[in-house]
Amino acid sequence: MTTLELIEYLRQHDIQLWLEGDRLRYSAPGGALTSSLRATLTARKAEIIAFLRQRQPVATGKTHSITAVSREGELPLSFAQQRLWFLEQLKPGRPVYTIPAVFSLTGSLDRVALEQSVNALVARHESLRTCFQPNRATTPGHCGITACAAGRNGYTPYGRC
Questions:
Q1: Nearest to residue 134, comparing CAs of 98, 99, 101, 88?
Q2: How far apart (Å, rounded) are the C-alpha atoms in residues 114 and 128?
Q3: Half-sphere CA count of 43, side-chain side, radius 13 A
Q4: What is the pLDDT of residues 59-80, one digit of tens each?
Q5: Chain segment 100-141, per-residue pLDDT in tens
Q6: Which residue from 12, 88, 118, 126 has the fewest beta carbons nearer than 10 Å?
Q7: In terms of C-beta density within 10 A (0-12 exposed, 13-18 middle, 19 or more buried), how is residue 114 classed?
Q8: Which positions ≥6 away from 17 have C-beta within 8 Å?
Q9: In Å, how far are 25, 76, 112, 120, 141 from 115, measured between CA atoms?
Q10: Where in the chain are the domains?
Q11: 3-class SS of residue 41
């Protein structure tokens, strides 16, 4: 059994291994670490430590941070966004990934509070503020979410649409 296969076997049995400095540590549910498995870990300890060190970029100082991109102006599309853009060009107007939702509320509705809540949600999530432009770029901003209040006589739009 290779080291990777051993580690995978341990994971399947909820046995976790990690390093604390040069020491190999483990956590296992009761009865999962049999005497034969414990002997295997002891015999292959150096090999397992080397394997875990190799998999820890922090220990080797090879960390890579994600650099922030300016949100001013247009941004290039991600691969997922390119797929959505392509599907829209292929069959315009089809709600391929649109998920309509209806929420049923009882009692009086505080429309101002609802609008503030939706705006706070949109402000928190960039994907809700992203619009696709014909030149295959994204423009940060408000694309528009229409909220309607359903009355007995139908739907009445309110707020920003």
A1: 88
A2: 16
A3: 8
A4: 445 566 777 777 777 778 888 8
A5: 777 777 888 888 888 899 889 988 888 787 777 666 555 555
A6: 12
A7: middle
A8: 7, 10, 24, 25, 26, 48, 52
A9: 51, 30, 5, 9, 17
A10: 3-60, 75-158
A11: helix
| CATH annotation of 3-60 | 1.10.10
Which amino acid makes up residue 73?
Answer: G
Say if pTM beats, i.e. exceeds, 0.85.
no
**Nearest by Cα to 48 from 94, 4, 114, 101:** 4
- C-alpha to C-alpha distance for 15 and 48, rounded to whole angstroms: 14
Query: CA Rg, the chain, in Å?
Result: 27
- Up-side HSE of residue 66: CA atoms within 13 Å toward CB? 3
Residue where the block lists tokens 């080797």: 60
